[in-house]
Queue: 2 jobs
Job 1
Amino acid sequence: MPQETDRLKLPLPLGNETVTRESINGIFEKIDAGVATQADLDTLREAVSKMDIPDASLTQKGKVQLSSKTDGTSETVAATEKAVRDARVAAETNAKNASLPRTGGVMTGRLIMNQWGTFSASSNGSVLYGSNCFLDGNTFKYENSHTNLGARGIYMRYTGGAGPEVYMFDTGPVATTAGTSFVPTLNRIVNMGDSLQKHRVSQDDGRATDISGQNLNNILQTGWYKGNSLSNSPSLSGGWGYVEVIRHDENWVLQKVYDLHADRFYMRRRMDSGWTPWTQDLFQSGVDAKNGIVGAINAKGGSASTSDTWAILINKVEEIKQSNYQQFSNISTGRIRAQKSSVTVPENRTITTFPAGSSLIVLGDLKITSDNVNYTFDWIPVIQLYFKDQNGVRVQLNGINGYASLPSGSASNYVYQLSLSTVYINKPLKRGQVSGNINYRYGSENNITSYNITIPENFDTNGPIELCIQLQRNIYPNYDQNISEFSQYFVVTVDTIVSV
């Protein structure tokens, strides 16, 4: 079957067909029938002009009028190309004017972020970054209504003061109504320029800073610390201790270490030359107790010092024997005749006897007065003070040679005075030491003599001990050999004797 054209359905000869005159004529006839003549067109135009075509609307098709307006409200006209362009340009311009550019710009009114966060300001320079609140001039207002959210914020203002005025506030969980005003309690935020210390001396919660395992030689900043296994620290019970550091500068630092498990502490100082050794120090109660014990020992005739260790003080307490305590006042020997040096056994006198077991003997001033001088010559008195045990063994405490020239023709009552200061026996008389000072004078001459005497091995300290004095007169040989008797006498008076 031959193919046909789409509109007039004219046959299209195939390549192997024979075209006849009749077929060609048939094609031309179809063309002639399908083509409109001018008369046909005129008839059609006349018919169209007589038709009633409605205006187009939103509900029906029809004819429309073109318009270039961009601000009209008609729904029966069609926009021209120009109107479409003008509307686009106006929209872009309005969009730019209604938003901030990426480079920034000025915005009036408050900025609300996700309904609750608000950034607002007033014309007087006050600025508020708030949660559920904003500034309306100088008035604080709630942004939203809520049953218990409340409001909080950071508020910056300037009222002419020299210091910074940055505050914070928090109303707590209270009910809020959008647009309602409120008065917050403002708390000033501390500024770094405020007069406050900025050096951290402990942890933020007040606990000591942990420095476990560190070297105390490197802990030089003022503060309170704690730690275990600290190098260059004193010995601590369980290894733990508190450390207090007071700093003057890098080369002058004071460190104190308190034992965590015992009532004791240690102290040392860093100086230009380095660290001093650790010293163990007592708490004040311990100091008071030690001072009291030292005072009690000394009051009982002992010799103690606060520098003594506790072990030494205990030993000194044990040495005190209360049952042997004795005190004598104004003991006088009576008149003792001074014999010349040629006498084999000079006269001596016992001043007092101390009971067995005495551990401390204290002598007050000892005065020697001479009287009844019946001769005129130069003489030298020899005065000896000594201890004597129950076996007669002596320990000489002193020997004083005093020289005086008596006035010619003197008959009697010439006073010669000699004073002996306190004699201390610092240890029990068991191979201990006897020490003291001797002050004596005659005429216008004063003398001070110090002595230190060792108790001999054969001196018996277990029995009673006598305090004795011996007086002897030495004169020039030519006098001594010619004078057979003297009437010179001495009186020995001891102000106080105490023994324990």
Job 2
Amino acid sequence: MAQEPEKMTAAEKVNNDTESQIQGEVASIAGGKLDVAAKFLASLGPEVTEEPISTKEARKLLWKIDLIIIPILTFSVIIAAVDKIIISNAAIYGMKEDTHLVGDQFSWVGSIFYFGFLIAEWPANILIQRLPVRTFYGATVMAWGIMTFITACTSNFAGLATVRFIMGIFESVVFPVCTLITAMWWTVSEQPIRVAIWFNTLSSIITGLLSYGIGHAKTNLAPWRLLFIVLGAITTVWAVIVYVFLPSSPVEAWWLTDREKYICLERVRKSNTGIEDKTVKWYQVKECLLDPKSWLISIFACAINIPNGGLVTFAALIVNGLGFEPLITTLLGVPTGVVGTLWSLLFNIAASRLPGYRCLLIVVSIIFPIISAVLLWQLPSANKVNLLGAYYAFYSYWAPYTMSTSLPMANTSGHSKKVTLNAMFFLGYCIGNILGPQVFRANDAPKYHRGYIGLLACLITGAVTISLYGLLCKLENIKRDKLQGGGPVPQTEEELREEAFSDKTDKEKPNFRYVF
């Protein structure tokens, strides 16, 4: 979108000065509490900042960002999901028998991954703030790729559980990294559709096709072991690609010019949420923990992910229980990825065009998996076709979660507060996925009626909590409008820029308005 000509006052003052003068100017803004973006802007000369940003220039840059960052985030999420959900297809390929799993041990193999996720979540978010994102993320992708290899060597519950636990530790960084990167590169209005693209269910398509192909392989290895070996190889190669192409922030992108970096920062400046600051501010952590909106969105993340945790572990067993043989079962998993991704894109496009109705759209999108859960619970087991149709339709549950993932970042300012809320949100995600496999018990197979009742309760809880979250956001906006005489107080461009990159929290910014 075209911008009016703007001048970077700090940059003009320091253009011909020494490095020490530059840092002195930087320290003068916001009492020295600046993030990386503000420091970069203060170092720019007028030849970069004085020329107005044209619509054509901004659009060209957005395409460049989309073509580089979106594929990295998308494939990173797909790789992580495939490594995680392949356990379901491995189960029907003989893993349960080869590792001597009995009773509900398979449920615990599914849950224990998220115990590792849970333990590592907070430290991972702190490390993301302290370390260069691309280095840290590239290393963790490599680590979980190695653990995927090792899974093929397990022969009992203890070994399988240990490897899955460690994998959970390393994969805990995926969504915090992707969410923070999304907030750095795209405006609030641009985020929903981008999140829907990278936060997809295409992993089900890859998992189904890969499993079907490996199921036909003629080797001395058990098919489930070969699955993990192939995926481990793909993941380790991807780790190198991530390290080379993923920048820690726009100002560190080697494939952008200074002018393009400047435009990047100007684009997200209007979101008023900042870019990056490696200092942990504990008052921001406290503010986040005392905010009821933080807890509501986190409870929502937990409730909506209990179905996800159950299906990640039991999807193939549910379909296999309908009477389909293992090879056909793997192929029947492919449509779930299509349904989940298309439904998510549909609602996220609607959310981007109706920004004032995001929470309402989330509630509407939850209605469809609720109906599907009722059908799975009530339809007779002999009605195989309709049960399979209801099973596919249930994957519409993915849309409400993807629409919610950009809310914590869009409604939070202050880097330490964002990191804390990010940790809480994905803590909810983690707990939900721990509980999910426990909803499906071995003695309920193959109908899993109690499992479907549990999923139904979770979806209703999600609808209630996201409704309350949206209500609180709306009430806070009304309160701020009244205090400011009907709307945000006009600010100069210099004041807007300094506030946007000063690393203040949303509560410290009277002009901040919440998205709901």
